[in-house]
Amino acid sequence: MEEIKVIKNLEALKTIRPNSQWVSFAKRNIMTKQFEAEAETTATFASIFNTIGHAFETPKVLMPVLSSLIVSVFGFSIITAQTLPGDSLFSLKQAYEAVRISLLSPEAQAVAKVEQADQRLTELDKISKESENQGNKLAAGIVEVQKALSVASTQLSKLPDNQKAELVSNIVSKISKIEETTNASIMSNESEDYQEFYKILAESEIKEFEANINNLTATQKSLLQQAKENFDVSAYSEALEVLYQIQPSE
Fold it and tell me: Is pLDDT of 30 > 50?
């Protein structure tokens, strides 16, 4: 009789269903713990990568081996161009970039760091065009752009004038377009970092107009002189505004 009672009790357990609120809570709890574990792993890997990237004491002959090992173990797919600021794997992408740049010559490193600012702007532009990426990701993208621009500004003096002007022109153009699209201020005009970009661009434009001075009208020459005066007192953005008023002669 006792056995029959136990069997009936066991069969009764089959009809018991967990409370729906408890199920929802359990799922959220499990997902939260999983996310925290992934974030911790990502942070650990990023720390390892950054350590390797800054290990300048490591003989150069070993750096390609370390770089290849990193890519082989963790896979290049986690650091593709599709990873954007605000994504959980973005720190790994940055760590990989740091290792890659560390393998270059000093001259090539300077170019790569300026180009990195351009890349961050491209990523920010992509975020701004995807409605689901607004909010935190947009803010993260702006922060990464500002950091990259700050680094790039310290590298510009190491570049040849023609290459420097071309890179800066592209960067400033992208900044203007993105600021117009997002209504966000990427960098203040008063920022020393940003002024360095304006300085290089204004200097390039002035040289170009001076090389064609004989083709300028009296009005254009007057504007050029005004721009040069602004440039001489470090009013680089104002100099550019004046230079943009000089229209090509027909």
Answer: no
Instruction: Give the torsion sign (CA, 166, 167, 172, 173).
Output: positive
> How large is the angle between the packed helices 136-155 and 192-211, nearest 10 degrees?
60
Question: Whose structure tokens read 């500004």?
Answer: 153
Identify whether the C-beta of residue 89 lies closer than 8 Å to the C-beta of residue 79. yes
Structure-model confidence comparison of residues 21 and 207, the more confident one = 207
CB 118 within 8 A of CB 171: yes
85 close to 120: Cβ distance less than 8 angstroms? yes
Please give the average per-residue pLDDT across 195-201, as a whole number.
88
Q: What string of DSSP letters covers 16-73?
A: ----HHHHHHHHHHHHHHHHHHHHHHHHHHHHHHHHHHT-TTS-GGGHHHHHHHHHHH
Distance CA 114, CA 134 (A): 26
d(CA 180, CA 194): 17
Question: What percent of the chain is helix, strand and coil (3-state, nearest 5)?
Answer: 80, 0, 20
Highest mean predicted confidence (pLDDT) among 29-33, 57-61, 115-119: 115-119
